[in-house]
From TrEMBL, chain A:
Signal peptide segment: none
Gene for this chain: atpC
Name by which UniProt lists this protein: A-type ATP synthase subunit C
Pfam families: vATP-synt_AC39
Superkingdom in the source lineage: Archaea
GO BP field: proton motive force-driven plasma membrane ATP synthesis
From TrEMBL, chain B:
Full protein name: A-type ATP synthase subunit D
Annotated source species: Halopenitus persicus
Gene that encodes the chain: atpD
One Pfam short name: ATP-synt_D
Superkingdom in the source lineage: Archaea
Lineage: Archaea, Methanobacteriati, Methanobacteriota, Stenosarchaea group, Halobacteria
Record's bilayer topology term: Peripheral membrane protein
Amino acid sequence: MSAVGSSNPEYVVARVRARRGKLYSDEEYRKLTRMGPAEIARFMEESTYEAEINALGSRHGGVDLIEYALNRNLAKQFEGILDWSEGRLYDLIARYLRKFDARNVKTVIRGIYVDASTEEIEVDLIRAGEFDDRRIRRLLEAESIEGVIEVLDDTIYGPALEEAYPAYEESGILVPLENAVDRTFYDHLLSELGRDEPTRQYESFLTAEIDFRNARNALRLARSGADIDPAEYFIEGGDLFTRDTLARLARNLDELVEYIAESQYADDLGPALRELEEADSLIAFEHATDAALLAYGDQLGTIHPVSVTPVISYILAKEREVQNIRAIARGKEAGLSDAEIEEELVIL
Amino acid sequence: MAKDVKPTRKNLMAIEDRIELSERGHDTLEQKRDGLIMEFMDILDQAQDVRSDLSDDYETAQRKIDMARAMEGDVAVRGAAAALKEHPEITTQSKNIMGVVVPQIESSKVKKSLDERGYGLLGSSARIDEAADAYEELLETIILAAEVETAMKKMLEEIETTKRRVNALEFTLLPQLYENQEYIEQKLEEQEREEIFRLKKIKAKKEEEEEEAEAAAEAEAVSAD
């Protein structure tokens, strides 16, 4: 509900546990991979997604219906968790869920940039973050990017966007604003975390996420050969890189791959790095980082049963469920075989 | 029609001139047609390669965007696409292949680096980069295919026109001219033969008259004696 007051992990964990039990099992995923989009929507209608499928069924169809229903359900679930949480627990959960706020801010800015209608922008928002309906409404009503920055003035994104605005005006492209939003999210992810054991577990998960994000971005920069200063895209807080190391390694793909292969993440990412060298594609590497984070998230749920970690573990599992169902439906729409969907898309 | 032509020596000379010009034109057009066909074959090979590349690039791009939509979601992919401001541009010029004017298409701002695509690097993924890469590649191939296929169509039209001209010369104009030439020659020969015959007749008549005159003179002389 708010960051004020005492923490209530017992209550939140109990409710989250009940919700976790409703997540799709591996067996249900396997069933889903053998269904077409219409059957998937029907299957979802008979589970926790019933309300969303029924509410959106008249406006959307096919895989779009599935995707919008998934996003809306995800938002409802995470909004509920934030509503139940209080005190320190709220702060710890909200800092992770702010990624949806960052995503929504970028969606609104992009919408204004391309003169999209309010309805078009609204349908793409995922209201799973900290922003309340009033702020989202004000964001949607903003008529210019300056107006968006004004609405966000009292949030963590306000100062960063104001600072990036002149660069946007100069270049005419959204990169400075988008990077400012993402950087603010990552900067606040690890700031002022507590020192108790569950929080340390959580911190090491967030550190791994930042490390993977830095590694992915460094590999993308190294492969693209674009004349970009890699240090500009460095996210503070990880263990794997310093600003200087990243700036140096992002100019040489071979050295970068070797550096990651010899790091503490060698076991998780080694096979994917070898594949990267062979297939000349980063997708396997991103897949491996996602899988490693999810495996870590699963462990989090069992180490400290009454703390923030089971909640975060559930949030990750729910995100994975949404990602998997969307991947299956979109894969089916694109005509991929069941084996391809299972192998390339679904992270079990 | 040969009978429409007046069988005069002047017309014969004019027809012989036209035959010579048409034969020269026929040879030149035949050479042009063969040259165009050879150029066309080269362009055809190129067009077939480009078509095959286009098909492969389209499949790759479609697969990459399907994967990006599956993993990142349609919303994220549409959002990344919306962030693009600098749209690709094309300029067309023309070049001449054996008298055929074909377009030459120059493209700019098709291939973009990561910082030119408009979406932030921190919040996006390699799947979106790869889909964007694949579509940029596809767009370049489409532009090349447009250039090659338009050139191919124009060459084909020119080959058709030249072929029609060659055939018209070979099967209509030249045979007609040869026929006219033959007709005039025959007529002229006939006229010559008639002339000779007429002259012979005149000569014979003259000789006959002379003989008659001589005989009459002889008879007159005998009667006078």
